Amino acid sequence: MSQIRASRRFPLLAAGAAVGALLLSACGGEETGSASGDTKFVQGTGEITKVADGKRTSVPDLKGPSVDGKKLKLSDYKGKVVVLNVWGSWCSPCRAEAPNLAKVARDTKGKDVQFLGINTRDLDKANAKAFERNYDIDYPSFYDPSGKLILKFPRNTLSPQAIPSTLILDKDGKVAVRALKELSEKELRSALDPLLAAK
C-alpha cells in the first residue's frame, strides 16, 4: 500500500520541483559567478542573448505595486529603452551585480532609458528596501514576492528565467537583450549602448 501512495505522490513532487527550479534558477550557495553549477536550467543560463531588430517580441504589460508601495506599469515607459532586472535581497549574485546596475542607471539618466526591477521571493518588504538603500538603487522595482509577474511571460520566449535575469527592451517595448546571469558594468554597457544609439 505504501508503494502505491508513493507512486501517486511522485508526479506531484516532480511538478513542485519543476516550479521551484523555475523560480530558483541561478541563485544559491555563496558563489557569485554565473557558472556556479547550482542552476536547474540546462539551456540559456549564463548567456547573454541579443536579438536583431525585426525579430524581437513584445513582453507582457506588467503592472503592480512597487517596493515602496507606488503603482508601477511597464507600458508607461514605452518610447524609452527599459532595463528590467529580476532580483532578490537573499540572492548573492544579485548583490554582486547591484552596484553595476545602480552606476549605469545613474550614468544614463536623461538618455531615454528607464531602469526597473522585479523584486521576487522577498516575503518582507523591509529586506527589499534595505537592499535598495545599501546599493543606492534609486529606480523603482515591482514587488513580486510570489513570482506571479515572472510567470506572465509566455513559455518558449526570451523570459527572465533566472534570478538574477536582465531584459533590455527597445523603445517599442520588445526584448532586444536577455541576460541569464549577473552582469558586470562592462557587459551591461555593451548591451545597452547600441540601443541608446539607435534612432
Automatic annotation (TrEMBL):
Domain of life according to the entry: Bacteria
Signal peptide: 1-26
Keywords: Cytochrome c-type biogenesis, Disulfide bond, Redox-active center, Signal, Signal-anchor, Transmembrane
Pfam families tied to this protein: AhpC-TSA (PF00578)
Protein's UniProt name: TlpA disulfide reductase family protein
Domain (Thioredoxin): residue spans on this chain: 53-197
Main location group: other
Location in the cell: Cell envelope
